[in-house]
């Protein structure tokens, strides 16, 4: 059993924290979350269980526990809900079809991944490439700066535009060079083609200086843990609709959802 400790400072004593929880993957499961008293809340479409914690102190401390029991990804991973984060433009469909031609199988997946990598430089732009749209646009011949979220949003749209089942996974990644610490959450993509499930992390390839993309987790050495999946999330009990993703704990105050500034995220032994 491995544990991830998430610590942050809350600016609001009368707030709540929404916590990702419970994802099952071929690499292990998020089996428990401890901290202050929590209750379950359900995401409407995927039926995933998240946790809600009332803030009783300015200091937030949450511990996630992960085992190594292998299970299949939930079927809902491959059944995206239609939202501004999953719908794609007609010009993107045309672009991807022209890129892949008659390719099939792994060669098809690798060509799409390579095409997406050729459209991005890794970074954290103030404004994502699809910020002002309600549909994923084609980037065209240029290049844009993008985080793992931006890159995978485009990658998923490209895959789905040619009929490939694909899903969005969120959690934590601890780089080997940082050992037991990371700065924030992470996301990656899982595909299912002809019954074969593969995982992809284009952002880490770009951080390593290569656009020759292959399937597989941890092209950048380190440890990762999945906590939640999908984009465009609804939590009706909390009056939260169209949440882009639940990558790491989020603060809810006066009906607004925000991330924590400079959290401490540590990998600890049981």
Explain what the structure shows:
The chain is of the alpha+beta class and 270 residues long. 16% of the residues lie in helices and 38% in strands. The protein has a 6-stranded antiparallel sheet, with no helix packed on it. Helix 1 (90-100) packs across helix 3 and helix 2 packs across helix 3 (148-161). The mean pLDDT is 92.
- Residue share in β-strands: 35-45%
Spatial order of the strands in the main sheet? 3-4-7-1-19-11
Helix content: 10-25%
- As for the CATH topology of the largest domain, it is C8orf32 fold
Task: Report the total helices.
Answer: 4
Give me some keywords for this one.
about 270 residues, alpha+beta, Immunoglobulin-like, C8orf32 fold, 2 domains, 6-stranded antiparallel beta sheet, 5-stranded antiparallel beta sheet, globular
Short synopsis of the structure:
The protein is of the alpha+beta class. The protein is about 15% helix and about 40% strand.
Helix and strand topology:
Elements: E1 2-9, E2 16-19, E3 24-25, E4 28-34, E5 38-42, E6 49-54, E7 59-67, H1 90-100, H2 105-117, E8 120-122, E9 144-146, H3 148-161, E10 165-175, E11 181-182, E12 185-193, E13 196-200, H4 202-207, E14 222-229, E15 233-235, E16 240-243, E17 250-253, E18 256-259, E19 264-269
Parallel strand pairs: 8-9
Antiparallel strand pairs: 1-7, 1-19, 2-6, 2-17, 3-4, 4-7, 5-6, 10-12, 10-14, 11-19, 12-13, 15-16, 17-18
């Amino acid at each position: 059993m491995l544990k991830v400790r998430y610590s942050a400072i809350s600016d609001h004593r009368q707030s709540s924290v929404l916590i990702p929880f419970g994802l099952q993957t071929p690499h292990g499961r998020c089996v428990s979350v401890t901290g202050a008293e929590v209750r379950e809340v359900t995401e409407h479409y995927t039926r995933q269980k998240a946790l809600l914690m009332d803030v009783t102190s300015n200091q937030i401390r949450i511990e996630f526990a992960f085992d190594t029991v292998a299970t299949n990804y939930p079927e809902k991973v491959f059944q995206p809900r239609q939202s501004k984060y999953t719908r794609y433009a007609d010009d993107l469909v045309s672009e991807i079809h022209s890129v892949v031609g008659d390719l099939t199988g792994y060669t098809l997946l690798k060509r799409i991944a390579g095409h997406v990598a050729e459209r991005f430089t890794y970074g954290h732009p103030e404004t994502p490439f699809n910020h002002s749209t309600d549909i994923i646009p084609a980037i065209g011949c240029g290049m844009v700066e993008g985080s793992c979220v931006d890159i995978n949003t485009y990658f998923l749209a490209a895959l789905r535009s040619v009929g490939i089942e694909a899903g969005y996974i969120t959690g934590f990644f601890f780089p080997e060079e940082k050992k037991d610490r990371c700065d924030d959450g992470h996301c990656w993509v899982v595909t299912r083609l002809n019954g074969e499930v593969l995982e992809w992390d284009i952002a880490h390839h770009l951080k390593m200086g290569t656009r020759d993309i292959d399937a597989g987790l941890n092209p950048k050495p380190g440890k990762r843990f999945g906590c939640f999946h999908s984009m465009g999330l609804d939590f009706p009990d909390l009056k939260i609709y169209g949440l882009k993703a639940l990558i790491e704990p989020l603060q809810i105050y006066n009906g607004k959802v925000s991330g924590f500034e400079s959290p401490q995220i540590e990998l600890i032994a049981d």
